[in-house]
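[job 4471] stage=fold_predict status=RUNNING
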Amino acid sequence: MLKTLSKTDALPQSLLWEDKEVKFDTPQLQTRLRGGEKILDTIYHIEDSKGNPGDTGRLLVTNLRIIWHSLVHKKFNLSIGYARIGTTNTRLVHMHTKGRIPSQALYILAIRNETRFEFLFTDVSGETARRDQPIFASVFDVHHLYQRTFLYRDLKLRGAIVQAGQLIIMPEEQVYSQVQGVWNLSSDQGNLGSFVVTNIRLVWFADANETFNLSLPYLQIEALRIRESKYGPALVIQTAETAGGYVLGFRIDPVERLNGLFKELGSLHTIYTEQPNFGVHYDPLDARKRQAAAAKEAAQATQFKVEEYQELNEGHEREINTKLNSYLAAGSLAGTEHATTDPIYCKELGFAMERIPEGYKLQDLWNVMPTKMVTLDE
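[job 4471] inference complete, writing structure tokens
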């Protein structure tokens, strides 16, 4: 049984819900962003066609969620966390108010618990046909980035986070300290391992099996305590409800090292929760430039390319063709008679080749390429 000692840090904080919830008509939703939450793109002239048809609003793409809010009725808004999004796609719809002009729409299927929500956000600007880039491209890009940066925000057990005894460092992550000889008290026998303390998370992995590990962002720590256990003083970490509400115990000797780590984790938690790094970084201008460059490159790749060549005068062209025809005829004749000739090493080409008949030069064979291009062009 664990007994509480004097050292306790309850770490009061608001639960991270923005990326994990679907909410409707939250007061001042678009102006009250969470610390560390950033608006990465704003899409104007967007209608919530299912819930608020006829209301023009804005779609805000943040690093945690999608926010739509009406510009007509200030109380109407939506918040869709990326963790709740199941399906996204775009489609063309015809707006009756715009003379049935095709408009681009974003379809989102969100799932919360066992409830499924369908959303349809439509571009009502009338500019869909004249846009050179998909209007909702940033939604797909940021959602993809969110899915790839799970470790910045959530608890991960038995993940591929350690290789050859070294933590795999994430972008913008810095290792502050490493503590060896840390006993994980999750079992009666305990497991000996190591702590890695970074600016983003606390990582523990077993020395005997590095796949037995946990990665815990400071954002998901609800309380830090030092308690008395049957093994002696232990560091007890309680995870937030969004991280399963686990109680994790670790023993570190001597007690002075335990106290030092306790203070370090408390300080890092305070700093991180004030301005957390959610791992999602996106610049819509750079993304559009990359998309435009990729589209241009793809278009150029599909075009037929003709290399530069020199025009040949009629006499030179006839000379090359005559020599080539004679060579091909000789080769064809040799093939029919099953003639065999020993190969020779060609210094110019760097490999063995059939001996060129007398009266011909290697250059004569290369000169045939421009002749083919001239004939093709004609």
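[job 4471] summary: Helices lie at 137-147, 255-274, 284-302, 314-336, 362-366, 368-377.
[job 4471] exit 0
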